[in-house]
Structure formats: C-alpha cells, structure tokens
Write a structure and sequence with these properties.
Elements (H helix, E strand, L loop, with lengths): L10 H24 L18 H4 L7 H21 L1 H22 L9 H18 L2 H14 L15 H17 L38 H6 L15
Helix pairs in contact: 1-3, 3-4, 3-5, 3-6, 4-5, 4-7, 5-6, 5-7
Length: about 240
C-alpha cells in the first residue's frame, strides 16, 4: 500500500501540470510553424498503425479552441492528482493514458481520435471515485469540487455531439474508475478528540470533573486557595528636601 505525505506541497505539484500544458501547446505551435497536420498520429481504431495514437494523440489538437478547452482542465486536474494522490499520481497518469488510448482503439469509430480530453476524463473519474471510496473528509470535498466544476462533462461520454470523440471520453471515464479501485493509497488518519476515541472514559476526563451529575459547575475552592496570588505593596518614603 502506497504511503502518502499528508497532502504536503512539493515541486512536482507545479512541475507536472506545467510540463503537460507546455507539451500540448508546443506540439500545436510546431504544427502552425511548419504548416503540418499531425492528425494522422491520432488513434485510428482497429488499424495497426493507429496504435501509435495511444502515445501521441493526447498531444495533438485540431484547433486553438480545442487546445484551449483542454488546457485548463488538464492543468487543474493534474495539480489535484499530484497534490492529493502523489504516491500514485504518475502511475495514474501513465497507465490512464495508455489504457484509455487502447480502449478507444478497440471501441472507437473509424476516424482519427485526437486531444487530451481522454486523459482529462481519466483524471476527473479517478479523483472523484477515489475520494468517494476513501471517505476522508478532504478527499470527499475534492470529489465534490470536481463534480461542481466538471460535472457537466459526464454528458460527453455519450454520442450527443458530432465531431467529438465520445468513445475517448467514455474510455477515460471507465479507466479512471478502474484505477481508483485498483490503486491503493494510505489515507492519513483523521485527528480525533479524546471523547471520540473508543477507549474514552468520562470518569477520567479532568474537564468533566468540574461538573456534577446534573451538569452544574462545581467550584473547587481548595484549588483556588492553593493557587491564590498574594500581592505585597512596598511604600518608599519621600526624601526630605
């Protein structure tokens, strides 16, 4: 079972999303700079050469709008992944990308599937389900944040809009769920107050000893007398002039 660093900040939390964003923007810039079209390096289902898209397709985007729409979710979700699930973050990212790409290759339409949206669905699905399974208050809160921000993405795992690779989205969603089940993370124990512990005994609680059985405060005068503060005043005579 992997260890966690109790959600501490590290350089990887910033470096990972930065590298991801720079990668997809650099590839798009190269296309513009050299007048190239890398779409043929996307996933082409059930075509042997189309398997190269499993590695390359997340970096390829068809337009500046497509690229922009994927940039912010990719950066935010990778940041969440590396901050809250650092021990399994890299494995989740790599395995999620590869397996979702292969699943897209198996179930997709006979077309080129490109873009980082499949990876985004892996991350969103993993973070949501992992938080629900962990039942840790911070991770559950993170799951709710993901739902609040990206909950509308769920509709795009269905073929509701032409030109969108819903197969890639569905693959990412399924793979994220599977990884959330299989990858184990040791969740830090929540700090409990003494009265929340199983071995708590009311009779030994020093605070409750100040109250009687009816909840009335018991004034301990002996303690007050023992701790009584005495003040001694010293008067200095005025000098004769």
């Amino acid at each position: 079972m992997a260890e966690t660093n109790h959600f501490k900040f590290s350089n990887s939390v910033l470096i990972a999303p930065l590298v991801a964003v720079l990668s997809i923007w650099t590839v798009f810039w190269l296309e513009l700079q050299f007048g190239a079209n890398f779409n043929e390096y996307g996933v082409r289902p059930r075509n042997f050469s189309g398997l190269r898209g499993v590695l390359f397709s997340p970096f390829i985007h068809g337009s500046i709008e497509h690229l922009y729409n994927n940039t912010i979710p990719l950066a935010v979700l990778i940041f969440f992944l590396f901050y809250f699930y650092r021990p399994v973050a890299l494995r989740t990212l790599i395995w999620g990308t590869l397996i979702s790409g292969i699943l897209t290759w198996v179930i997709g339409r006979n077309s080129y599937h490109i873009g980082a949206s499949g990876v985004i669905y892996v991350l969103a699905s993993f973070i949501f389900f992992k938080g629900v399974f962990a039942k840790h208050f911070r991770l559950v809160a993170l799951s709710l944040v993901v739902v609040f921000i990206y909950g509308s993405m769920i509709w795009y795992i269905f073929p509701i809009e032409e030109g969108i690779s819903w197969e890639g989205h569905l693959s990412g969603f399924i793979v994220g769920l599977i990884l959330a089940i299989l990858l184990k993370v040791k969740i830090p124990n929540e700090r409990k107050y003494p009265w929340e512990r199983e071995d708590y005994n009311e009779d030994d609680d020093p605070f409750l000893k100040h109250f009687d059985e009816n909840g009335n405060f018991i004034e301990n005068r002996s303690e007050e007398s023992d701790n009584k503060i005495e003040i001694t005043y010293h008067y200095k005579k005025d000098k004769e002039g």
